[in-house]
């Protein structure tokens, strides 16, 4: 018993392969490490090491390493650091002294004053 693919001619098989490749290309773009590094904004070596050792999302086709755009987004998000105040800002907060009172309550209108009776 033979499979239906074995009965196809060479041109029919080539047409099927071309159609499959076009369908695949329309679905998702994959980038090689050099292109993906440019998209992410990092070095190619750092990206390769991350895929090989630190668990960055990637696709591997035999010995070829590829990254989808979704992989690039995830890698950027994985390495995002939240903002932290600088050491200078921390030092300023420590040295800050409380402001001196002007003697008036800011909640009280300026036109109303209570004077002690003499």
CA distance, first residue to last residue = 120 Å
Largest sheet: 3 strands, antiparallel
CA gyration radius, whole angstroms: 33 Å
- Tell me, rounded to a whole number, the average pLDDT: 77
- Give the number of DSSP strands: 3
**What is the string of helix and strand elements?**
HEHHEEHH
Shape type: elongated
The count of helical stretches stands at 5
State the secondary-structure class.
mainly alpha
Helix content: 40-55%
Strands of the biggest beta sheet: in what spatial order? 1-3-2
Could you name the key traits of this structure?
118 residues; mainly alpha; elongated
Could you outline the blueprint of secondary structure elements for this entry?
Elements: H1 10-27, E1 30-31, H2 33-40, H3 44-53, E2 59-61, E3 64-68, H4 69-78, H5 87-95
Antiparallel strand pairs: 1-3, 2-3
Helix pairs in contact: 2-3
Structure description:
The chain has 118 residues and is mainly alpha-helical. The protein has a 3-stranded antiparallel beta sheet. The N and C termini lie far apart (120 Å). The chain contains 5 helices and 3 strands, in the order H-E-H-H-E-E-H-H. It has helices at residues 10-27, 33-40, 44-53, 69-78, 87-95, and strands spanning 30-31, 59-61, 64-68. A hairpin with a 2-residue loop joins strand 2 (59-61) and strand 3 (64-68). The mean pLDDT is 77. The longest helix has 18 residues, at 10-27.
């Amino acid at each position: 018993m033979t499979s239906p693919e074995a009965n196809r001619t060479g041109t029919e098989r080539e047409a099927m392969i071309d159609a499959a490749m076009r369908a695949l290309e329309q679905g998702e773009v994959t980038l090689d490490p050099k292109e993906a590094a440019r998209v992410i904004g990092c070095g190619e070596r750092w990206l390769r090491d991350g895929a090989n050792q630190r668990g960055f999302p990637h696709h591997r086709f035999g010995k070829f390493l590829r990254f989808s755009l979704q992989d690039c987004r995830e890698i950027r998000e994985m390495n995002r650091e939240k903002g932290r105040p600088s050491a200078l800002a921390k030092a300023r907060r420590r040295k800050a002294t409380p402001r001196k009172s002007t003697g008036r309550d800011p909640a009280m209108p300026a036109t109303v004053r209570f004077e002690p009776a003499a």
